[in-house]
Amino acid sequence: MVPTTLLGRLAVSTAFRGQGHGETLLMDALYRILQHSGEVASAGVIVDAKDAGAISFYRKYGFLELPRVERRLFLPLAQSKNCFDR
Q: From CA 68, how far away is CA 49, in angstroms rounded?
């Protein structure tokens, strides 16, 4: 078992999709998780994707699908720093 941070679902209204808001929300969440990782001893981030589109979104940022739980993805915290290089 590895201590992780569970990220609640990020959602963007259908009226605002495709404008980069999802990426902004994810980057802000990852930044905050990184800032506090020493205090909460988190080694990674877990998300529960709502659907195939959300899985595709998270995979674009390096999240890996976990085999035992459907639509659950994991991003090692050390790897999350690469998300900011985009």
A: 14
- Pick the more confident residue, 54 or 84: 54
Q: Tens digit of pLDDT for each residue in 32-51?
A: 988 887 788 888 999 999 99
CA distance readout (Å), 86 to 14, 19, 59:
24, 16, 14
Q: Exposure pattern of 7-43 as b/e (b: 16+ CB <10 Å)?
A: beebebeeeeeeeeebbeebbebbeebbeebeeeebe
- In a 10 Å sphere around its CB, with 0-12 CB exposed, 13-18 middle and 19+ buried, how is residue 78 labelled? exposed
Helix (H, G, I), strand (E, B) or coil at 74: strand
